[in-house]
């Protein structure tokens, strides 16, 4: 079964894994910018992270509609 997923990956699972990878990279970049004292970069990276991690209104609406 795992072998099948490697050959024919689930697109939703792939998107989730890619999103997690990007989130981890952003968190590392934020920490590095903090250590280096780059305040503007920290704020920019935090905004990018927030945009990536917060679901949009439409995503929440669609998921809620599917449940019922």
TrEMBL record:
InterPro entries: Rbsn_Rab-bd_sf (IPR036531). Keywords: Coiled coil. Residues 12-55 form a coiled coil. This is Uncharacterized protein. The lineage of its organism: Bacteria, Fusobacteriati, Fusobacteriota, Fusobacteriia, Fusobacteriales.
């Amino acid at each position: 079964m795992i072998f099948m997923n490697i050959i024919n990956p689930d697109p939703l699972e792939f998107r989730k894994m890619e999103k997690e990878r990007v989130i981890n990279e952003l968190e590392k970049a934020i920490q590095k910018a903090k250590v280096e004292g780059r305040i503007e970069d920290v704020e920019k990276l935090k905004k990018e992270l927030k945009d990536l991690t917060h679901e949009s209104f439409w995503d929440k609406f669609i998921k809620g509609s599917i449940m019922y």
